[in-house]
Amino acid sequence: MKKGLKKLMALGLVAVLAVGMAGCGSKKEEKASSAGATKIEQIKKDGKLIVGTSPDYPPFEFIISEDGKSKIVGADIELAQKFADKLGVKLEIKSMDFDSLLPALQSDVVDLVITGMTPDETRKKSVDFTDIYFTGKNGVIVKESDAGKVKSEDDLKKMKIGVQKGSTQEIYVKDQLKLTDYKALTSVPDLVMDLKNGNIDAVVLNDKVASINAGKYDGVKVVENLALTSGGDEELMAVAVKKGDNKELLAALNEEIKTLKDSGEYDKILANAVDQVSKEKK
Question: Signal peptide location in the record (predicted)?
C-alpha cells in the first residue's frame, strides 16, 4: 500500500512539474514573441496608441474644461487621433512636463511624443522623428510698454528672457543668443505671468503661440517685424518615436502626415484648434 502510494505520488509530482514547465515555456515563448514584434504590431496588439504631450502650448496642445472635467485638446491631439484611426486602435494621451517626454518615450511609457517638438540635431541622437508636419516662425512677447524697445536680437540680448524648458527656443536663447541668465519654466502660462509681474522682460515662443497668449492676457504684446536671424527665425515640428527599428511605424505616420498636408486637412485642424482657443478665452 505505502509503496504503491509513493509511486502514485511520484507520478503526480512529475505531472505537476511537467505542467509547470510547459506553462513556463509558454510564457517565455509569448514574451519572446512580443519582444520580436515590431512597434506597429505591438500597438495593434495592445489596441491603443499611447501619446505623450505637454498640454500647455495652444493651439497645439492645451487643457479645457468639458462637463466639469479637464480634457486635453489641440491640433497635435487631433493629429494623434488621425494616427490612431489609421492604425485602427484607440488613442490614449499621457500628460507630462515637456522635458520628461523623451525619457518617457525611451523607456516605453509612451509610443509617440507629439508636442510641437522641433527635430534638432541633439534630439535626433536619442530619438527618431517623422517628416515635418508644421513649419512656423518664432515670436517674442513683451509688456505693451516695452514693445517699442525690441527692434533686433541685440536688444533681446540685453533682456531677461523666458522660454519653455527643453524647447527649441531654449536652445536658441542659449546657443545662438549666448545668454546664460535666462529663465526656463515648464509652463507657458507661468512664463506669461512672470512677464506680467516683471520677473522677466520677454518670452520667446512659436509665433502662433505668442499671438494666442498675447490675445489671452492683458498688458502683453507680440513684437512686430522682429527678424530673428541667428537660427531662431523658424520652428519645425515633427513626431518623435523611440530610436531603433521603427521603419514600419515611421512609414505609416509619414504617409498620414503627407495625406493631411496635401489635402489641406492639417490646415483645417490647426484653424479649428485656434478657434477653440479663442472660444476658451471668452
Answer: 1-22
